[in-house]
Design brief:
Oligomer: single chain
Number of strands: 15
Low-confidence stretches: 1-44, 365-443
Largest sheet: 5 strands, mixed
Number of helices: 16
Strand content: 15-25%
């Protein structure tokens, strides 16, 4: 190491935002736009420092490389009196290593050669956030989260949380033997119900149209940076689901504890701005406390939306739009102007058009006239047979169907004076009608 200190090693690469790409080039950022530089000496020094080969690419990155890199970072941090000062630098290094690890789908088991008991990664020291400070903790005792909002939510539990607060933490933590804090905690919400929209919250009136307009603008903002049509479709579907699951409540509290009772089992519940209620791994409801002040409500809506869609990288962009919209009874024009300032080429009226498209099903009304109920078909049926028959065959919620049903519509029901008698299926013929019997299915 040539006597280099941890500050000299880590600070020279990370706070100046020096990263090594998979092609061996080094991207340097120091308050200026990123630029590509060829610095083989810097690449070589970094690789040597981490105890791995010079070529940093996913195909050749082995379990041995991973162990030496992560373990070396822990050793360097151990020699420091205050590891917290390197938190940003270490997070960048952990992110880079996570990108080099083999891809891992959710729920997929680790390859046998990559299991922590085989690689030794379960025993390495990881930099973790514990409460408001940082400590080195064995990987097998650490937990990981996928965003900074999750880190803040669980901070008071006092558990060691891996100092990587990004989606990459799931892969990095799994390979190191850390545990997913999301599945390890028990969340018990308590709240008071409130009426449906419209509601007064954050010193503003919020109704259904306002909420739909905001979500339409957020969707347009996401489309600005999405390069894949599949991601655009995913955002659209997730935004619609968020709308359907969003529930405003009052005085939301949340009791958080580890399911095994090993940490702070008896901690009292704490006020919570929002909460994603789950059934296993599936989100079933999004709760937001409407009694918050304006600033906290903006943050709650932002956090709920970005966490529900799993887009923490868009937190600031979403937060800005929510802030601009809250307090505007009809925020469409304001949001369009804001979208244009960040590079979204939206014409006038685009937010409203997107709102109508996104929530078209909410606006649809059944195009059906009220139909007269047919006369009971048989004289021997009980008086309540009509009601029973209707409850058996008609759904609770009426929907428009394009299929032909067996129920007689108003256009098919003959005039009452043309029926010979109740129970006679044959319609009386007049002199002007065709002399062929006519039958209906309802009489």
């Amino acid at each position: 190491m040539g006597g280099r200190t941890i500050w000299g090693i880590l600070n020279s690469y990370c706070p100046c935002s020096v990263t090594v790409s998979r092609t061996g080039r080094t991207a340097v950022t120091a308050g200026f736009p990123p630029r590509e530089t060829d610095e083989p000496e810097a690449v070589s020094t970094l690789a040597e420092t981490l105890g791995i080969g010079r070529r940093l690419d996913q195909e050749s990155f082995s379990p041995r490389d991973a162990y030496h890199a992560i373990n070396r970072i822990g050793e360097l941090l151990e020699s420091s009196e205050d590891p917290a000062q390197f938190a940003s630098a270490v997070e960048l290094l952990y992110t880079r290593i996570a990108e080099l690890l083999p891809g891992l789908e959710q729920g997929e088991p680790l390859p046998s050669e990559w299991r922590p008991d085989e690689t030794g990664l379960g025993d390495v020291d990881l930099l973790c956030r514990v409460g408001q400070g940082y400590e080195l903790v064995p990987a097998s005792e650490a937990y990981y989260v996928r965003s900074r909002s999750s880190r803040d939510r669980y901070a008071k539990l006092g558990v060691p949380i891996l100092a990587l607060f990004k989606p990459e933490a799931a892969s990095f933590g799994s390979y190191c033997g850390a545990r997913d804090l999301r599945t390890a905690v028990r969340r018990e919400p308590a709240y008071e119900d409130c009426p449906p929209l419209p509601l007064s919250m954050g010193n503003a009136d919020v109704d259904q149209a306002w909420l739909e307009t905001l979500l339409a603008a957020l969707l347009l903002r996401l489309r600005t940076n999405r390069q894949s049509a599949s991601l655009v479709d995913q955002d659209r579907s997730a935004t619609r689901t968020f709308y359907e699951q969003l529930t405003f409540v009052e005085n939301l509290d949340l009791r958080i504890s580890l399911a095994d009772g090993s940490w702070d089992e008896n901690r009292p519940p704490e006020p919570q701005a929002y909460h994603l209620e789950r059934d296993g791994d599936r989100i079933v409801r999004v709760l937001v406390d409407r009694t918050l002040d304006r600033g906290a409500l903006v943050d709650a809506l932002t956090g709920a939306y970005t966490e529900r869609l799993d887009i923490p990288q868009y937190y600031e962009a979403v937060n800005t739009l929510v802030d601009y919209a809250l307090g505007e009874p009809e925020p469409g024009t304001t949001l369009e102007n804001r979208l244009r300032t960040v590079g979204s080429d939206v014409p006038s009226g685009q937010v409203e058009a997107t709102r109508k498209e996104l929530f078209a099903e909410e606006r649809d009304e059944p195009d059906m006239e009220e139909e007269p109920e047919p006369v009971a078909p048989e004289p021997y049926m009980a008086d309540d047979s009509e009601e029973d028959d209707r409850s058996e065959h008609e759904p609770a919620e009426r929907t428009v169907s394009t299929e032909t049903s067996g129920t007689a519509h108003s256009a098919q029901v003959p005039a009452i004076d043309s029926v010979t008698s109740i129970g006679d299926r044959q319609i009386a013929r007049t002199s002007t009608q065709i002399q062929k019997p006519i039958y209906t299915s309802g009489f």
